[in-house]
Design goal:
By secondary structure, this protein is of the alpha/beta class. 35% of the residues lie in helices and 18% in strands. It has seven helices and nine strands. The chain has helices spanning 15-19, 47-79, 100-112, 132-137, 152-163, 232-248, 266-289; strands at 10-13, 88-94, 120-124, 169-175, 180-189, 194-198, 224-230, 298-302, 308-314. The strands form two sheets. It has a seven-stranded mixed beta sheet with strand order 1-9-8-7-2-6-3. A two-stranded antiparallel sheet has the order 4-5. A hairpin with a 5-residue loop joins strand 8 (298-302) and strand 9 (308-314).
């Protein structure tokens, strides 16, 4: 049985205590009306939570960002020559359905409002999944999201290029509607000051990818890592709830990969969603995602209602 407790080297905080750490200079420019722009499908967020959880986190990230900038200035002074801009990379990891996208979008908005107004890009590692035809040939379609389903070499080369300051880098686009990589479509990442990298696999290393064990991996390029956590019983419920809502909306699109479920009675669709969770998402969580949690710099633990109840900061 996998140990699900979050142990040392973390310090645990409740939301009230965490809220007291907000930098007085960090101002919130968002309103209740703005929140919908950052919510992932079926997620929840309040303005109080933004103020009490995410604004202090933004302050912490700004301190790390400025500290890294100062270290680069020291290196430049030592070398006596300027260095190319190196993006500060923040990773957002966690299980399927936990709300990684909401966290990533919200942090992007907050970071863009720092006094120094950094240029921020956000991508998901879904863009580095192999296309479905490749996964089918390799009999891996049922393991989408597992380590073997990613083009790891391409992802690492992208991270190396971004750290080297290369411009106009192309990241493949993944469609959750077609459940596949979109041919000939790309997100362009052009020398950002901050890159937010979101995905289930961003904290994994050579343990999960033995063929790269002696090489650099994703986590080697991350400057600050965040893991969004929740008990699995909540994760599965959120996944099932999302599946049922999508059945009434996106599944009706004939181009949707899950269109075959669109006309199922809710009880049948719920059973299928639970089977998918148990066969795929549960296994990936236990084998590949959750074991990486304690590698994070910060853990945000959500309760049953999607709201963050505990914050764990690495010492």
């Amino acid at each position: 049985m996998l140990d699900t407790e979050i142990n040392s080297p973390f310090v645990k905080f409740d939301p009230k205590t965490w809220a007291s750490f907000k930098d007085a200079s960090e101002k919130l420019y968002l309103t209740e009306d703005d929140l919908g722009k950052y919510l992932a499908f079926n997620d929840k967020l309040t303005l109080d939570e933004v103020k009490n959880i995410y604004l202090p986190l933004s302050s912490l990230l700004r301190m790390y960002y400025l500290s890294r900038h100062d270290r680069l200035a020291i290196i430049q002074k030592f070398l006596g020559s300027p260095m190319d801009q190196v993006p500060f990379i923040i990773s957002i990891s966690g299980s399927v359905s936990v709300g990684k996208t909401t966290t990533a979008k919200l942090l992007k908005a907050l970071i863009e409002n720092w006094p120094c107004k950094p240029k921020v890009s956000m991508i998901t590692t879904d863009g580095f999944l192999y296309p479905n035809d490749y996964l089918e040939k390799k009999m891996l379609l049922g393991k989408k999201g597992f380590p073997a389903s990613y083009d790891v070499k391409r992802l690492i080369n992208f991270l190396l290029d971004i750290k080297e300051g290369k411009s106009n880098l192309k990241v493949p686009v993944y469609s959750h509607l077609t459940y596949d990589i979109v041919p000939n479509q790309y997100t362009i990442v052009d020398r950002p000051n901050v890159l937010i990298l979101e995905g289930v696999n961003v904290l994994q290393d050579g343990t999960e990818y033995p063929e790269y064990r002696k090489k650099a991996f994703i986590s080697d390029y991350i400057d600050y890592s965040i893991y969004v956590d929740a008990d699995e019983k909540h994760l599965m419920k959120w996944y099932v709830d999302r599946f049922l809502k999508l059945k009434e909306q996106a599944f009706s699109d004939p181009d949707c990969y899950f269109n075959k479920y669109a006309n199922l009675p809710d009880e049948n669709a719920e059973s299928i969603a639970k089977l998918i969770w148990e066969a795929v998402n549960h296994v990936n969580l236990i084998e590949n995602i959750l074991p990486c949690r304690n590698r994070a710099n910060l853990i945000l633990k959500k309760g049953e209602d999607h709201h963050i109840e505990e914050i764990y900061l690495r010492k």
